[in-house]
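task queued by scheduler; priority normal; single chain, no ligands, no partner chains; default sampling; output format set to C-alpha coordinates
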Amino acid sequence: METHKPNHALDSDEPEATATASWVAKLLRDRIVKGELPPLARIVERRLSAELNVSRTPIREALKLLQSDGLIEISRNRGAQVTAYKASEAKQLFDVIAMLESLAARRLTETIDAPTLDLFEDLHAQMMVFHKIGSAADYFDVNTEIHDLIVSRCGNPVLENTHRRLIAQARRGRYLAIMDPKRLAQAVQEHEILMDAFRAQDAEAAAAIWHDHLMNTGMSVSDVLKKGAN
Protein backbone atom coordinates (compact mmCIF):
# COMPACT_ATOMS: atom_id res chain seq x y z
CA MET A 1 0.00 0.00 0.00
CA GLU A 2 1.20 3.51 -0.85
CA THR A 3 2.26 5.37 2.28
CA HIS A 4 4.34 8.19 0.86
CA LYS A 5 3.09 11.60 1.89
CA PRO A 6 1.72 13.41 -1.20
CA ASN A 7 2.74 16.91 -2.19
CA HIS A 8 -0.46 18.85 -1.49
CA ALA A 9 1.05 22.25 -2.16
CA LEU A 10 0.76 21.73 -5.90
CA ASP A 11 -2.89 20.72 -6.13
CA SER A 12 -4.76 21.87 -3.02
CA ASP A 13 -5.75 25.17 -1.44
CA GLU A 14 -6.19 23.51 1.94
CA PRO A 15 -3.69 24.34 4.68
CA GLU A 16 -0.98 21.70 4.71
CA ALA A 17 -1.98 20.22 8.08
CA THR A 18 -5.60 19.78 6.99
CA ALA A 19 -4.59 18.19 3.69
CA THR A 20 -2.21 15.85 5.50
CA ALA A 21 -4.92 14.88 7.99
CA SER A 22 -7.25 14.04 5.09
CA TRP A 23 -4.55 11.89 3.48
CA VAL A 24 -3.84 10.05 6.74
CA ALA A 25 -7.57 9.49 7.30
CA LYS A 26 -7.98 8.07 3.79
CA LEU A 27 -5.05 5.70 4.30
CA LEU A 28 -6.32 4.46 7.68
CA ARG A 29 -9.87 4.18 6.38
CA ASP A 30 -8.64 1.90 3.60
CA ARG A 31 -6.71 -0.25 6.09
CA ILE A 32 -9.78 -0.64 8.29
CA VAL A 33 -12.12 -1.39 5.39
CA LYS A 34 -9.76 -4.04 3.99
CA GLY A 35 -9.10 -5.65 7.38
CA GLU A 36 -5.46 -4.64 7.71
CA LEU A 37 -6.58 -2.95 10.92
CA PRO A 38 -9.09 -5.47 12.34
CA PRO A 39 -11.83 -4.77 14.89
CA LEU A 40 -10.46 -3.71 18.29
CA ALA A 41 -6.97 -3.02 16.87
CA ARG A 42 -5.28 -0.05 18.53
CA ILE A 43 -3.91 2.84 16.48
CA VAL A 44 -0.87 4.25 18.25
CA GLU A 45 -0.20 7.86 17.30
CA ARG A 46 3.57 7.82 17.79
CA ARG A 47 4.01 4.66 15.73
CA LEU A 48 1.86 6.02 12.93
CA SER A 49 3.72 9.34 13.06
CA ALA A 50 7.04 7.54 12.63
CA GLU A 51 5.73 5.26 9.87
CA LEU A 52 4.20 8.06 7.80
CA ASN A 53 6.77 10.73 8.67
CA VAL A 54 4.15 13.27 9.72
CA SER A 55 3.62 15.12 12.98
CA ARG A 56 1.09 13.91 15.52
CA THR A 57 -1.19 16.94 15.01
CA PRO A 58 -2.60 15.86 11.61
CA ILE A 59 -2.76 12.28 12.89
CA ARG A 60 -5.02 13.40 15.73
CA GLU A 61 -7.19 15.28 13.25
CA ALA A 62 -7.35 12.19 11.03
CA LEU A 63 -8.47 10.08 13.98
CA LYS A 64 -11.29 12.53 14.66
CA LEU A 65 -12.46 12.07 11.06
CA LEU A 66 -12.43 8.28 11.47
CA GLN A 67 -14.33 8.62 14.74
CA SER A 68 -17.03 10.61 12.96
CA ASP A 69 -17.21 7.78 10.37
CA GLY A 70 -17.86 5.32 13.19
CA LEU A 71 -14.72 3.36 12.31
CA ILE A 72 -12.82 4.01 15.54
CA GLU A 73 -13.48 4.90 19.15
CA ILE A 74 -11.21 7.23 21.10
CA SER A 75 -10.94 6.98 24.88
CA ARG A 76 -8.56 8.39 27.46
CA ASN A 77 -7.54 4.93 28.72
CA ARG A 78 -7.20 2.98 25.46
CA GLY A 79 -6.53 5.72 22.92
CA ALA A 80 -7.79 5.07 19.39
CA GLN A 81 -9.24 1.63 18.71
CA VAL A 82 -11.02 0.19 15.67
CA THR A 83 -14.68 -0.37 16.46
CA ALA A 84 -16.26 -3.79 16.64
CA TYR A 85 -18.56 -4.77 13.79
CA LYS A 86 -21.66 -6.66 14.87
CA ALA A 87 -23.91 -8.77 12.66
CA SER A 88 -27.06 -6.95 13.80
CA GLU A 89 -25.52 -3.56 13.05
CA ALA A 90 -24.46 -4.67 9.58
CA LYS A 91 -27.97 -5.88 8.74
CA GLN A 92 -29.53 -2.62 9.91
CA LEU A 93 -26.99 -0.57 8.00
CA PHE A 94 -27.53 -2.41 4.73
CA ASP A 95 -31.29 -2.07 5.10
CA VAL A 96 -30.75 1.68 4.79
CA ILE A 97 -27.95 1.56 2.22
CA ALA A 98 -30.06 -0.69 -0.02
CA MET A 99 -32.90 1.83 -0.04
CA LEU A 100 -30.59 4.76 -0.77
CA GLU A 101 -28.56 3.12 -3.52
CA SER A 102 -31.56 1.54 -5.23
CA LEU A 103 -33.22 4.96 -5.40
CA ALA A 104 -29.98 6.39 -6.76
CA ALA A 105 -29.88 3.65 -9.43
CA ARG A 106 -33.49 4.42 -10.39
CA ARG A 107 -32.90 8.17 -10.73
CA LEU A 108 -29.65 7.69 -12.63
CA THR A 109 -31.24 5.28 -15.10
CA GLU A 110 -34.06 7.72 -15.78
CA THR A 111 -31.59 10.34 -17.01
CA ILE A 112 -28.51 8.39 -18.10
CA ASP A 113 -26.82 9.73 -21.24
CA ALA A 114 -24.32 8.15 -23.61
CA PRO A 115 -21.14 9.56 -22.00
CA THR A 116 -22.26 8.43 -18.54
CA LEU A 117 -23.15 4.97 -19.83
CA ASP A 118 -19.73 4.75 -21.49
CA LEU A 119 -18.10 5.60 -18.17
CA PHE A 120 -19.99 2.78 -16.45
CA GLU A 121 -19.14 0.41 -19.30
CA ASP A 122 -15.43 1.15 -18.84
CA LEU A 123 -15.54 0.71 -15.07
CA HIS A 124 -17.57 -2.49 -15.36
CA ALA A 125 -15.06 -3.90 -17.86
CA GLN A 126 -12.17 -3.06 -15.51
CA MET A 127 -13.96 -4.70 -12.61
CA MET A 128 -14.57 -7.85 -14.61
CA VAL A 129 -10.87 -8.08 -15.54
CA PHE A 130 -9.85 -7.84 -11.89
CA HIS A 131 -12.45 -10.46 -10.99
CA LYS A 132 -11.12 -12.79 -13.69
CA ILE A 133 -7.50 -12.52 -12.53
CA GLY A 134 -8.45 -12.79 -8.85
CA SER A 135 -7.21 -9.37 -7.75
CA ALA A 136 -9.57 -8.79 -4.81
CA ALA A 137 -8.23 -5.39 -3.72
CA ASP A 138 -8.34 -3.94 -7.25
CA TYR A 139 -11.76 -5.48 -7.85
CA PHE A 140 -13.03 -3.88 -4.66
CA ASP A 141 -11.61 -0.46 -5.52
CA VAL A 142 -13.30 -0.35 -8.93
CA ASN A 143 -16.48 -1.84 -7.48
CA THR A 144 -16.51 0.96 -4.90
CA GLU A 145 -16.03 3.54 -7.65
CA ILE A 146 -19.11 2.14 -9.44
CA HIS A 147 -21.24 2.30 -6.29
CA ASP A 148 -20.08 5.85 -5.54
CA LEU A 149 -20.64 6.99 -9.12
CA ILE A 150 -24.24 5.75 -9.09
CA VAL A 151 -24.88 7.91 -6.04
CA SER A 152 -22.98 10.98 -7.24
CA ARG A 153 -24.65 10.95 -10.69
CA CYS A 154 -28.21 10.33 -9.48
CA GLY A 155 -28.99 14.06 -9.24
CA ASN A 156 -30.13 14.05 -5.61
CA PRO A 157 -27.73 15.90 -3.27
CA VAL A 158 -29.81 15.02 -0.19
CA LEU A 159 -29.43 11.32 -0.97
CA GLU A 160 -25.72 11.79 -1.69
CA ASN A 161 -25.06 13.58 1.61
CA THR A 162 -27.01 10.99 3.61
CA HIS A 163 -25.15 8.18 1.88
CA ARG A 164 -21.79 9.82 2.60
CA ARG A 165 -22.44 9.72 6.35
CA LEU A 166 -23.03 5.96 6.29
CA ILE A 167 -20.75 4.64 3.60
CA ALA A 168 -17.53 4.03 5.56
CA GLN A 169 -19.09 1.27 7.63
CA ALA A 170 -20.88 -0.15 4.59
CA ARG A 171 -17.61 -0.42 2.65
CA ARG A 172 -16.14 -2.33 5.55
CA GLY A 173 -18.94 -4.84 5.17
CA ARG A 174 -18.74 -5.01 1.39
CA TYR A 175 -15.08 -5.97 1.57
CA LEU A 176 -15.95 -8.82 3.95
CA ALA A 177 -18.62 -10.00 1.53
CA ILE A 178 -16.28 -10.40 -1.45
CA MET A 179 -14.14 -12.81 0.56
CA ASP A 180 -16.99 -15.34 0.12
CA PRO A 181 -16.53 -16.87 -3.40
CA LYS A 182 -20.22 -17.79 -3.68
CA ARG A 183 -21.35 -14.28 -2.79
CA LEU A 184 -18.72 -12.76 -5.07
CA ALA A 185 -19.99 -14.75 -8.07
CA GLN A 186 -23.55 -13.69 -7.24
CA ALA A 187 -22.51 -10.04 -6.89
CA VAL A 188 -20.78 -10.07 -10.27
CA GLN A 189 -23.96 -11.38 -11.88
CA GLU A 190 -25.96 -8.63 -10.16
CA HIS A 191 -23.60 -6.03 -11.62
CA GLU A 192 -24.18 -7.55 -15.07
CA ILE A 193 -27.95 -7.24 -14.62
CA LEU A 194 -27.57 -3.61 -13.54
CA MET A 195 -25.58 -2.85 -16.69
CA ASP A 196 -28.33 -4.41 -18.79
CA ALA A 197 -30.85 -2.14 -17.05
CA PHE A 198 -28.67 0.91 -17.72
CA ARG A 199 -28.38 -0.02 -21.39
CA ALA A 200 -32.15 -0.47 -21.69
CA GLN A 201 -32.83 2.63 -19.56
CA ASP A 202 -35.11 0.43 -17.44
CA ALA A 203 -35.28 2.36 -14.16
CA GLU A 204 -37.53 -0.18 -12.47
CA ALA A 205 -35.16 -3.05 -13.20
CA ALA A 206 -32.12 -1.01 -12.10
CA ALA A 207 -33.74 -0.13 -8.78
CA ALA A 208 -34.87 -3.72 -8.18
CA ILE A 209 -31.51 -5.39 -8.86
CA TRP A 210 -29.56 -2.78 -6.91
CA HIS A 211 -31.83 -3.18 -3.89
CA ASP A 212 -31.38 -6.96 -4.08
CA HIS A 213 -27.63 -6.51 -4.55
CA LEU A 214 -27.20 -4.46 -1.38
CA MET A 215 -29.57 -6.61 0.67
CA ASN A 216 -27.73 -9.77 -0.42
CA THR A 217 -24.45 -8.14 0.58
CA GLY A 218 -25.88 -7.21 3.97
CA MET A 219 -27.01 -10.78 4.56
CA SER A 220 -23.59 -12.10 3.56
CA VAL A 221 -21.81 -9.66 5.87
CA SER A 222 -24.13 -10.56 8.73
CA ASP A 223 -23.45 -14.28 8.18
CA VAL A 224 -19.68 -13.72 8.14
CA LEU A 225 -19.80 -11.71 11.35
CA LYS A 226 -22.02 -14.28 13.07
CA LYS A 227 -19.56 -17.06 12.20
CA GLY A 228 -16.67 -14.96 13.43
CA ALA A 229 -18.41 -14.38 16.77
CA ASN A 230 -18.90 -18.13 17.38
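post-processing summary
- The first strand starts at residue 42 and ends at 43.
- The beta strands are 42-43, 72-75, 79-82.
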